[in-house]
Amino acid sequence: MNKKSLLSNPLLFFLLLMLTFSSLDAQWRVLNPLSSSDVNSIVGRGSEVYASSYGKGIYLSTDNGGSWKLYNQGLLGLEVTCLLSTGSDIFAGTFYNGLYKLNGRSWSPVNVCDEVTVHALGFCGSVIYAGINNSIYSSSDYGTTWTKIHDFDKGVYVTSFAFYCCGAYAGTNTAGVFVYSSGSGWTLINKGIIPNINCLTVHKQVLYAGTKTGTFYQDVVNTTDSSWSYLGGPAVSVTSLLFFKDNLLVGTDGFGLFLYKNSGWTGVYSSLNNKSIMALYNSANTLFAGTKQFGIYRSTDEGVTWSVSSTGIVQNSIRDLLVDNDKIIILNSNDGSINQTSDFGSTWTAINSGIKNKTGLYYLAKFGDQIYTGGLNGLYKTNSSVISWKTTGLFSTTKSLLVDNQNYFSGGTDDNGKTIISCSSDSGRHWNQSYVNSIGFVNQFFKIGNRILAAHQTLGVIESDDNGATWFENNAGLKYADPVTAWKITSAGSYLFASTQNGLYRSDINSNWLFWQQVIDFGKNVYDMVDTGNKLFIAVYGGGVFSSNDYGSTWNNISEGLTDSSIIAIKVSNSDLYCASSGGGIYYRPLSELGIVSDVDKNNNIIPNDFSVSQNYPNPFNPATVINYRIPKGSFVTIKIYDLLGRQISSLVDKYQDAGNYSVTLDSRSVPGFQSLSNGIYFYQFNAKQFHKTMKMILMK
Predict the structure, then answer these.
(1) What integer pLDDT is reported at residue 268 of this predicted model?
(2) Whole-angstrom distance, CA of residue 569 vs CA of residue 545
(3) Could you tell me the pLDDT band of residue 95, with boundaries at 50, 70 and 90?
(4) d(CA 473, CA 454)
(5) Residue 51 — pLDDT band, cuts 50, 70, 90?
(6) CA dihedral defined by 264, 270, 276, 279, rounded to 10 degrees?
(7) Using an 8 Å Cβ cutoff, are 584 and 335 in contact?
(8) What backbone torsions phi and psi does residue 185 show, to the nearest 5 degrees?
(9) DSSP strands (E only) in 354-450
(10) pLDDT grade, residue 14 (50/70/90)?
(11) Are 95 and 120 in contact (CB under 8 A)?
(12) How far apart are CA 167 and CA 34, in angstroms?
């Protein structure tokens, strides 16, 4: 199918844009991100500088990094892994969507092989090298035709190429460094170096390798017999290397940027302190550094000072997550913006109207039909159906909120950092303040009976039994650290749970919830938790997600599929479990996958409030899978199945249905059109009145 026919078929174009890689196992799925400021590759062509971002695609600057704009026309996937400039052509490698070449103002797919991940690209003379899946391909005609020249073991892939006099070197993720010779092919040269290679570069007959434990080097003239030597410097994971004027810049994962000059080391540059430097590039005496989460920095004084070069690059780091029926709402910690999606991230909408100072926002919360957010300039609320933020009567700092009918409780601090708890008995119009004799703020409130408990930044758990007028500590058994930080409180069965900076604590009704006992110590922050009635889920920062079905006595790690373990929020909807990482990742899993009967299944006789369709389960499937959906009013409903080319395979539903909760089974053995289909990715499209949604499923025979 040619480009013209693709663009003239809106359905096909939409379906192909949605195509992303899905794991074949039951695990967390990645929700389409709002944006990404992770920059993993930077290259140039003349006055143009290109930067790639995993999740946002490709940016272009024509003013030496002064400003950037998205340059994604023609890309079918935005998970760009690497870039290559040959001087005349620009190539882009992607995750699972193959290789692209820039033709004019649009990217065109390069025919290597279908559904592949390009891990690394290199160029020497007139030959292009591509690390694709666990193989190396080469092209001598600028990407028109390709030849596979080497296969690695399963799970091994190329992370970087380097060249000297057109001798080729390939660094790999777990197998070390290989050198190519016409007589012997690719030969391993690993003496004296660990096999985990992040990056390679060559300078003046010396080959340098950035590894998981630092920087190593060896002579390229005699690589077969020589050993690697440790260069010194930071003994941490080195993620990027760049020579300029005989000076070596070394980018690290989480420890910033270092300079090796005149056999000595300098660092860390203050503006890049503790940042992950994923890419380095030199253009016309301007140095560029691509970072994880923080966009692009540049230096015009040979690396002495660095400034942000991210105008036009949207940055996203999540502070809080709210799931409201079919809407997913996130609070961005970088700029305080609030965005929502109702189509699993296919489109995001900013919902900031009425908020004076977005950068000072701390949380999202829903009570009844109202959504709340608050921060340095006070408390805002809006109706959940029509987002339009309005101020309340609280204009001081608020970092947490509890709404109990007409009673509001807000946790904040004064100018000296001392705890203030503000209380209102008239839905937030008028407030009274009480002080707690401690520094720190309240992370969350929790009400049980006539008692109000608060998770405090330095006091652990505090409590009020007089509607917030006075507060006392409820910390018996809790203070394994001093000060102790409590993040969240929740109930499950007859227990209360408190998540802290060093694990999870439980309190029994037999102690009147006045004594805490540690049930698991991760040595990490447990930032959030949620109870579904028969399972408790916790978010462990740096550890992922854990579940317990016996009120915390035993735990299971259910982090399969998470690409970022810095989980800061976990929420539940009618049919799915969601979590968010501080790095901007949003993930979800069907509750049915976790052995939980969803509210949709338990309440089939209840009329839903809105339209929705769930991810089919199981997925992948063989031979049958089930699709659940809800319609709040009588509607003509269609569910149609399409293949990757946009051709309709079958129609599962095509009729008028009354309001209610429904499910339909797709059995590949009996549904017309499916019996002869092979393994692969298909799409189902749900339509009812003005609600339309397309989702992906995988058939595995």
Answers:
(1) 58
(2) 10
(3) confident
(4) 10
(5) very high
(6) -70
(7) no
(8) 75, -145
(9) 361-367, 370-375, 378-383, 390-391, 400-404, 407-413, 418-424, 432-439, 442-448
(10) very low
(11) no
(12) 42
Q: Please give the structure tokens belonging to residue 188.
A: 């391993």
- Quote the strand ranges of 405-558, DSSP E: 407-413, 418-424, 432-439, 442-448, 451-456, 460-464, 472-473, 486-492, 495-500, 503-508, 517-520, 526-531, 536-540, 544-548, 556-557
d(CA 415, CA 396): 10
Q: 374 - beta bridge partners?
A: 363, 379
Output the six-digit token pair for 413. Answer: 């601090």
Instruction: Write down the pLDDT at residue 399.
Output: 94
pTM over 0.70: no
Give the mean model confidence (pLDDT) for residues 348-362. Answer: 81
Tokens found for residue 585: 């990742």
Q: Are 547 and 507 in contact (CB under 8 A)?
A: no
CA-to-CA separations, 242 to 194, 260, 282, 288, 630, in angstroms, rounded? 21, 10, 8, 10, 55
CB 621 within 8 A of CB 698: yes
- Of the candidates 560, 558, 573, the residue with the CA atom closest to the CA atom of residue 608: 573
List, in sequence order, every residue forming a beta bridge with 593; answer none if it has no partner: none
Determine the distance from the C-alpha atom of residue 523 to the mean position of all C-alpha atoms in its chain, rounded to a whole number: 23
How do beta strands 167-172 and 390-391 pair? unpaired
CB 428 within 8 A of CB 408: yes
Phi, psi dihedral angles at 270 (to 5 degrees)? -60, -40
Name the one residue in this structure whose structure tokens are 């695990």: 27
CA dihedral 151, 253, 560, 618 (to 10 degrees): -70
d(CA 495, CA 511): 10
Residue 19 contacts residue 695 (beta carbons within 8 Å):
no
Instruction: Give the separation between CA 568 and CA 572, rounded to whole angstroms.
Output: 14
Count CB atoms within 10 A of the CB of residue 482: 7
Closest to 610 (Cα-Cα) out of 625, 602, 600, 618: 600
Q: What are phi and psi of 420, to 5 degrees?
A: -125, 130
* Rounded Cα–Cα distance for residues 548 and 544 (Å): 14
* CA–CA gap between residue 139 and residue 120 (Å, rounded): 14
Q: Which residues of 162-175 are buried (b: 16+ CB within 10 A; e: fewer)?
A: bbbeebbbbbbbeb
CA atoms of 236 and 216, how far apart (whole Å) = 12
Q: Give CA separation, 293 vs 36, 69, 236, 579, in Å.
A: 7, 17, 19, 18
pLDDT at 255: 84
Q: Which residues pair with 500 in a beta bridge?
A: 486, 503
Who wins on pLDDT, 614 or 569?
Answer: 569
Checking phi first, is residue 568 left (phi over 0); if not, alpha (psi -120 to 50) or beta? alpha
Residues forming beta bridges with residue 340, ordered by sequence position: 329, 349
Q: Are 126 and 140 in contact (CB under 8 A)?
A: yes
Instruction: Report pLDDT for 1.
Output: 37
Q: b/e string for 129-142 if b means 16 or more Cβ within 10 A? A: bbbbbbbbbbbeeb
Q: What six digits make up the tokens of 23?
A: 């794991």
Total H helices, total E strands in the chain: 3, 63
Residue 597, pLDDT score: 55
Among residues 85, 88, 86, 133, the alpha carbon closest in space to that of 113 is found at 133
**Radius of gyration over alpha carbons of the chain, in Å?**
28
User: Could you tell me the two tokens for 52?
Assistant: 């790639």
Task: DSSP letter for 615, please.
Answer: P
Confidence of residue 24 (pLDDT cuts 50, 70, 90): very low
Q: Which helix (H) or strand (E) holds 177?
A: strand 177-181
Residue 317 clears pLDDT 80, i.e. is over it: no
* Residue 600 CB coordination number (10 Å): 22
Rounded CA-CA distance 612/637 in Å is 12
